[in-house]
Amino acid sequence: MSLTRVEKVKEWFRSRVKIPIGVTIAVCVLPAVLTGLFYILRSNRPAMDWVTINISAPTRRFLGLLSSIYPFSVMETLSTVIGIFLIYYIIRSIIDTARKRKRWKLLGKRLLPVLVFLLYMFSAFSWLWSSGLHATGFAERYGFSSDGIAVEDLIAVTEMFAERANELSQLVERDEYGYFIQNRREMSEASLRVFDNISEEFPSLQGRLFTPKAMIYSWLMSITGYSGMYFALTGEALINTHPPGVFMAYTMAHEHAHQLGVFAEDEATFVGILACITSDDIVFQYAGYMAGLNRLLNALASVDADAWHAITATFTDEVRRDRNQSFEFWATRTMSDIGVNFIDNILTWLMETTSDVVDNIYDRYLRAHDQELGIRTYGAAVDLIVQYFSDMAHGN
Q1: Cα dihedral 301, 307, 312, 315 in deg (nearest 10)
Q2: What phi, psi does 99 have (nearest 5°)?
Q3: One digit per residue, pLDDT tens: the chain, 396 residues?
Q4: 342-357 CB burial, b ≥16 within 10 A, e <16
Q5: How far is Cα 339 from Cα 352, in angstroms, rounded to an integer?
Q6: Helical H runs in the chain?
Q7: Residue 364 and residue 231: Cα distance in Å, rounded?
Q8: Model pTM?
Q9: Could you please report the per-residue DSSP string of 230-282?
Q10: Does residue 232 contact residue 74 with C-beta atoms inside 8 Å?
Q11: In what order do the strands lie in the sheet with 213-214?
């Protein structure tokens, strides 16, 4: 019986390439060893600090430089190709071994490479990213306290942010309907300079930034409720291009903060806002004050409703319009509107379920790496904002 071309290639490979069994075992066992070593050492702060500085940071910079060659999202492209191949490979393996003797043994042998590959990816992500969640954080490095904040300080800083947002809302470019407009490419280029000023005060924020990229699956990011992400295995800052308004500028700064080694979400939120506010670009300044204002108001609403109403009553029409535009987008992100009720109901349920599942997975990931507030660590940024700006807000 004649062999197919694929079978001929396999036969040629088997006859000429002899891989010692010891090498095969080592290759298969190595990712499990590396993963186990990470979990043993992750509670050792000095070890994680060393890994973050000497392994994680230079590796992620190199990967960011490599992926910056391509204008598209390397992470999403590779994920799509690898995902399709793995699905095909698994299905093919099940079909090929279904009618053979010792099929479970054969199937396990066929699927072993998939398991090893996934373990390598998990191990790499653990050492390049998760390690930073166990290292000395930005707040600790620069002496920010964790003693909480006073309500009067929260009110004063919120008033200051509202005042600056009102002023800057008049200076940014708008369309004929009064909505904020900005060329995304110009914004991306400007984001590379957004840390120039703040890095003088916080030297750890110095470093090369790579242009943020538009996400191919922005629609999926919108459904899951995320406006951007940083992926350590390619060093890319990725931006959801669907949300409207000025907040995209802040999202770029937030993902750049991750790119510069600010790992915790609350700290990246604070650093992103601070970088925007202290930059020389009016668009980023406005974005920073608006992003900070939203978080401050959320915190204030739960402790002093009267102060919340008094501050929101001072908003300019432009600030209200920009906030409402963003709120409306995110409020409808999981709602289908095809026009056929039962289809809309099914799609809405699927999108809501997807959002909940992603939130739960990310929340568990954060908690598993000592981020005890889980997803709510985004709200913990308020403490950092108030601590940093309280003296300025009180006129000191």
Answers
A1: -150
A2: -110, 10
A3: 455 555 566 666 566 666 666 667 777 888 999 999 999 998 999 999 999 999 999 999 999 999 999 999 999 999 999 999 999 988 888 888 877 777 777 888 888 888 999 999 999 999 999 999 899 989 989 988 767 788 898 999 999 999 999 999 999 999 998 999 888 899 999 999 999 999 999 999 999 999 999 999 998 888 888 899 999 999 999 999 999 889 999 999 999 999 999 998 889 999 999 999 999 999 999 999 999 999 999 989 888 999 999 999 999 999 999 999 998 988 887 665 555 565 556 656 566 676 566 556 556 655 655 555 444 444 578 889 998 998 787 766
A4: eeeeebeeebeeebee
A5: 18
A6: 5-16, 21-41, 45-51, 57-67, 74-97, 103-128, 138-141, 151-169, 184-191, 198-201, 218-224, 247-259, 265-278, 282-301, 305-312, 317-331, 341-368, 381-393
A7: 18
A8: 0.86
A9: EETTTTEEEE---S-STHHHHHHHHHHHHHTT--SHHHHHHHHHHHHHHSS-H
A10: no
A11: 213-214, 236-239, 228-231
111 CB-contact burial (10 Å; exposed 0-12 / middle 13-18 / buried 19+):
middle
Q: How is residue 188 written in tokens?
A: 């991306």
The single-letter code of the amino acid at 395 is: G
Single-letter amino acid code for the residue at 163 = E
Q: Which amino acid is at 230?
A: Y
52, two tokens? 């973050």
Paired tokens of 301: 């609403």
